[in-house]
TrEMBL record:
EC number: 2.4.1.-
Ranges annotated as spanning the membrane: 40-59
Entries under Pfam families matching the protein: Glyco_tran_10_N, Glyco_transf_10
Classification via Gene3D superfamilies: Glycosyl transferase family 10, C-terminal domain
Record's keyword terms, sorted: Glycoprotein, Glycosyltransferase, Golgi apparatus, Membrane, Signal-anchor, Transferase, Transmembrane, Transmembrane helix
Species of provenance: Spodoptera frugiperda (Fall armyworm)
Database matches in PANTHER family: ALPHA- 1,3 -FUCOSYLTRANSFERASE (PTHR11929), ALPHA-(1,3)-FUCOSYLTRANSFERASE 10 (PTHR11929:SF194)
Record's keyword annotation contains Acyltransferase: no
Pathway the protein acts in: Protein modification; protein glycosylation
Boundaries of every Fucosyltransferase N-terminal domain copy: 74-179
Name under which the protein is recorded: Fucosyltransferase
Lineage per the UniProt record: Eukaryota, Metazoa, Ecdysozoa, Arthropoda, Hexapoda
Cell compartments where the protein resides: Golgi apparatus, Golgi stack membrane
Family membership: Belongs to the glycosyltransferase 10 family.
Amino acid sequence: MCHYQIKWKRVKHCTWTIDFYTLQMLAILLNKIMRVKLRVLLWFVCIFTVFFLVTLWTYSDVNSVSETKIDSKYPVIVWWNMDFHGVSSIKYCSNGVKCNIYGKNDKAMQLYYNVGAYIFYASTLDFKNLPLPREPKDIIWGLFHEESPRNVEELLHEKALSLFNFSATFSRFSDVPYPLQHIDSFEDIRSKKYFIETSKKNELLNEIAPIMYLQSDCETSTERDAYVKELMKLIKVDSYGSCLNNKQMPPKFKDDYLNNLNEDEFLAFIARYKFVIAIENGACNDYVTEKFWRAIKVGSVPIYFGSPTIKDWLPNKKSAILLEDYPTPKKMFEHIQVLLHNDRLYEEYLEHKTKQLITNQRLLDEHSFRPYQYDGVKIIDKFECFICERLHDKINGQIGVHIVNKSHYDCPKPLSALTLKVNPDNTWVYSWEYAKSSAESIYERVINGYY
C-alpha cells in the first residue's frame, strides 16, 4: 500500500514535472513566435508606410502630370529666378484668360519644353544664368524690378533693359507701374494719427533739434552724408543710426529699430520733429521711397533730394523742401530759419494734415487708376496677368515684339546732393560707367547666344 502510494506520488510528481516542462517550452516557443511575429509586423508596418508614402508621392506626381496634360492648352509662364508661388498654379486673369505659372525648380515645369514667357526678379538676377538662346519673337521676357537702382547696376542702362519685352517697375512708363509702392495706405497722407501741432513741436525744440536724420547706409551715390555734414555746421540736426551719429536712440528702439520703422511708437517718435531729411540712395525718375512718404505720414516736413520727378508726386505744391530749390546747405539753412520763426509759413508745407488737402491731380489719378500699388502681392498678380494676356495676344498674332527702353527704369549718372552735379571722384560714378560697359557685353552675349 505504501509502495503504491510512493509509486503514485513519483508518477504524479513526474507527470507534474513533464507538464510543467511542457508548459515552459510552450511559453518559450510562444514567446519566440511572438517575437518573430512582432518583428514581421514591424517590418510589415515599415514596408506599408514606405509603400504608402511612395504611392502618395506617385499619385501626387501623376496628378500633376494629369493636370499638366489637362491644362496644356494654357500658355506657360516661368519665374526664372524667384519662386513667388512656391507651387505651380493656374493663373486666372480677366476675360477668361488663363496661364500656367511655375517656378524654375518646379518639377511639373520640367514637363514643358514650350515655355511662352519668363519673368525675372531683378534683385536676384544672374546675367550668367539665363534661359538662352534668346528668342524674342517666340518667348516673352518680363522684368520685375521694385528695388533700389544700386541693386543691379547693369539695369541702369538701356542695353540691359532692352533684353526684356515688358516691365513692372516704379516708373510711370513701365507696363505695370507702381510709383506709389512705398505708401502704406493713401489715407495715411491726410491722417492725423501721428500728427503733432506746430505749437507742441515748438515746445519740443527745448529737448530736440528741429531736424532729424536717420540713416544706416552711409555710402550712397547721392553723397547724402556729405550734404548733411555741411548742414550740421549751420543748424542742429539729431542724427540717429550709424551715419554721422550724434544722438542715441531711446533704449526701447535701440536694439532693432531698423525692423520697426513703421511701428506706431517709432512713427510717433519721428513726428516730434519739424523737419526730416529724406535723401534717396539713388536718383531715378519716379523712385520715391519710404524716406519721403514716412515724413508725409507723420506730419514732418521732408527735406528732399532724389527723384527728379518728385514734384509730380507731392500731395500739394509745398509738401516738401527740395534741395533743387535751395541748392546749397547755406541757402537751405536760411530758409529753415525763416520757417522756424514763422508758424504760418511752416504750416504751408502741412496742408495735407492741417486742411486735409491733396491738390495734386496726378497723385489722385494715380491712386484711383492703380489701386494695386499698395500691396506687393497684388503688384505681382497684376504683372503675371499682364504677361499672361500679352502671351495670349502673341499666340493670336495680335502683337509684335515689344522692347523695354530706358524710360521704364530711368536713372541718370549719379548726382551729388551737396553740389547737385556729377562728382567724378564719387566711386558710384565709376561703378555706373563700369556697369554701362558690362551691360553692353551682356547684351552681345545674350543676343548672340553665347553660353
